[in-house]
Amino acid sequence: MLTPLYLPRYHSAGKEKATILAVDLGGTKTAVGLFIMNGKKLKLLEEAAYPSVEYSSFVDILHQFLQEKGQTMPDRICIGVAGPVMNGSVQLTNLSWGLNRKEILKDTGVKEVSLINDLEATSFGLAGLSEDYLATTHIGKPQPGGNMAILAPGTGLGEAGLFWDGSAYRPFATEGGHCNYAPLNKLDIELYHHIQEKHPIVSWEHLISGRGIFRIYRFLRDVKGYKEPGWLTEKLAEDDPAAVISHTAMRELNEACTKTMEMFVSYMAEEAANLVLKLKATGGLLLGGGIPPKIFPLLKTDAFYKHFINSHQMQNLLREIPIKVILNSKSALLGAAYYGAYGPED
Asked: What is residue 311's predicted lDDT score, i.e. its pLDDT?
């Protein structure tokens, strides 16, 4: 285990065996994994992913998965979900339906069901990651027992923290990605007003997400006059725009895409610094979610670090923060499995 995490049933697991259905449920896709727990070991047996919007409930996805894989109901279910979990219920931020723990217990007959925020799941995923999946972009000087922060852009923007309780780190969720965005320069202000035409309240998630990448690009193209060649128009229509833009930028094939990702990386760095300062995360910053592993070459540049330490009075603190990128895009699914196997009983 890379970092001691609050998994109270881990050390007492003994030879206990159980099947754990882990779920990473987001606005775009739902990843499902069936794990077998054998004492302190977890092994992935089956996995699949489903377009979330094509289903009317989680239980529909569950039955589809079990039918496809020829499996029976698991012993436990843990769902990491993109939204604020309150009293065992959650309304997904980027999806029209919600989840209720008691209803899932009733509909499935499973005796143990856990609902946690997807960034909590990402945090617990550290329990199952090797050092190979953590890439350091700044060594810093981590403080023993210092808080840690996780910033994770994907379909939306997830933010979480971990605090040291004296023997283990305890992840906790936030909804910081929905805080109001603050522009810093004239170009930022223009972009802010452009987005505000459709979204009166502009949050950091409007910029630091897959949709945010496309918003920045369209602003540069439609407002600032950057050129879009025909081949790029075709690719944007055929594939995921955020992926097309980021891949094109890393290959330096189009000025608009390059500028888009420069702005995206700067916003990501600025909000990462905001999160670190608010949590006083002297233990380190982790960049996770679906986007960072795909744009890792852009995150290890001086540009990200320059914007990260650009603070009025806290540059010295920010310079000492270790920064790592979680390269495993399935860390939330893995974390849900670890929480379902070894987390506290609900």
From this structure: 93
